[in-house]
Structure formats: structure tokens, C-alpha cells
């Protein structure tokens, strides 16, 4: 028997639910769609054949139901890798920690995470409203540096990135984590391209946007766009994927990130029908899950 987790380590609400997500272990399915926007949760669950559970707290809205015989949870993470740390640690706790004994279960449950998010392209030839699956998440934030994670990273890519970017003088130490290939196979088709997705900790300066503040790195997006690894380029920039890949893999879960490209940062274009593109990606995701081995 391992030692039990203390009450400031594993924080439970008075009803026994996990601290931020406000969920009980039975509330979640093993297939979990994550979205950034809390409003997008019902845009996913409106396609479900039945909804068994709806709960929320802060920006974390969760619906669980059935689509074509598959039990699916959809949860909003809000924006950013700091929220990913909370959501993914708490979802793992719901699956793999016994809340009565406060001990880690000996038999682990593996969850499958599918991010359905939005993103900006860094390459002029990747148009707005297209779909992109992230084969690797490249973290420019620092979340994964707080975990013992050497064994799950794509070290070859990390080394190539560090040498190419040479951004340690800005305290940027990129980490690279790959998608789960088996899970990705479910979503692979000629409708969705593959790319390397950079994840950063902000929307403006950390994505090369200049409103009134001067950037520390003037050619930030162009430099990212110039990196290639084999056939793959850094294609897009958003705020969650690398952290999702990292925290999911560290827990032994599977993750894939699907992006609707709403902006093209290289051409300056922004989608005029972003809502439609996101809806099509939601439908694509659900149809692929329906036809898959996921339960
Ligand atoms: C920024 O507007 C947000 O949109 C993107 C970014 O990753 C960030 O969370 O994704 P979502 O639309 O999934 O939130």
C-alpha cells in the first residue's frame, strides 16, 4: 500500500468532487474532447444522442454523453498551458486515484484526449479554415520544465530546435512532445494536414503580435516558420497543444490536437467564417470517433 495523498495535495470539494473541475470519478468518459472556449462545449454536445451529465466551475464546463454508441466527455480548458496543468492533472486523478483511500490505483486507466481547438498558421500556403493535426507540440512556455519528463520528449527535435532558434538568451527553452500515433490514425485523412505546432504562453507578444508593446524578438513568427525537421515544418501557433501532449503522455494517456486554422499570420488574413470551420472540425472529430475502436 502506498501512502495516501494529503488534503492540500489532492484537494476535494465537500461533495467529494475534484477541486477545480467539480467532477466525480464516474462523471468522465475515457474518450475526452477538450476545447478552449466554454461555449464550445455545448457546440459539441448538441450533436450527442443523449447527455447524462453537465457540470461546471470557473471556465471548466463538462458535458458527458453518447454519440453513436460512444461515451464521450467534452470539457473546456479555458486558455493557456497553466490551465492545461490543472485540467489534465485533475482528469487523471479522477481516473487513477481512489478518492476514498486517497491512494493511486494499482490498475491504471488510459484516457484518450482529442483537442478541438483554433490556431494561427505560420506558413503562407496553409489557408484559413483548413484543418491541421499536430504531430508534435513544441512548447515555448515553461510548464513541462517543472516535471521529470526527459523520457517522454522528442529529444532529437528538441536539440535541433535549440540549435536553430538559439533563444536561450530570452529564457526560451523549447520542449517537444509527439502525438499518440494510434490515436492520430483515427483522425488521419486527406481532409487534415500534419504539422509541427508551437505552443506559447500568451496571445500577443508570445505570438509575435504587436499592438503598443515592442517585441523582444522582432522576427519571432518568421524564425519559427523557418524551422523544419525532415518533411515537417512549424506550421502553426496556439496556446495548449505541447502542454497537453506532455502532461497526457507523462500520465500514460493518449493525446492528439486538431486545429481549425482561423488566422494566417504570414499573409495577415483572418477567417471570415471561423464559426463554420470550427463546426466542421467538431463534426469531423465526432464522425471519426464514431467509426473508431474507441469505446
Ligand atoms: C486564443 O484565442 C485561444 O484560441 C486557441 C488558443 O490556443 C487559445 O486557447 O485555441 P481555442 O480556440 O481552443 O481556445
Number of DSSP E strands: 14
CATH arch. level architecture: 3-Layer(aba) Sandwich
The overall pLDDT average reads: 97
Largest sheet at a glance?
Answer: 5 strands, mixed, barrel
Find the structural class using helix and strand composition: alpha/beta
Q: Trace the largest sheet across and list its strands.
A: 7-12-10-8-13
Secondary-structure element string: EHEEEHEEEEHEHEHEEHEEH
Unreliable segments of 5+ consecutive residues? none
Bulk shape:
globular
CATH superfamily: Nucleoside phosphorylase domain
Query: Which cofactors or ions or other ligands sit in this model?
Result: 1-O-phosphono-alpha-D-ribofuranose
Question: How many domain units?
Answer: 1
Provide a concise account of the structure shown.
Helix content is 25%, strand content 29%. It is built from seven helices and 14 strands.
What are the salient characteristics of this protein?
single chain, 295 residues, alpha/beta, Rossmann fold, 5-stranded mixed beta barrel, two-stranded antiparallel sheet, 25% helix, binds 1-O-phosphono-alpha-D-ribofuranose
Topology:
Elements: E1 31-35, H1 38-45, E2 50-57, E3 60-67, E4 70-76, H2 81-96, E5 97-98, E6 103-104, E7 112-121, E8 131-139, H3 155-165, E9 175-178, H4 181-187, E10 192-199, H5 220-225, E11 228-229, E12 232-238, H6 241-250, E13 254-264, E14 269-270, H7 274-290
Parallel strand pairs: 1-4, 1-7, 7-13, 8-10, 10-12
Antiparallel strand pairs: 2-3, 3-4, 5-6, 7-12, 8-9, 8-13, 11-12, 13-14
Helix pairs in contact: 2-6
Bound molecules: 1-O-phosphono-alpha-D-ribofuranose (R1P).
1-O-phosphono-alpha-D-ribofuranose (R1P) binds near residues 36 and 239.
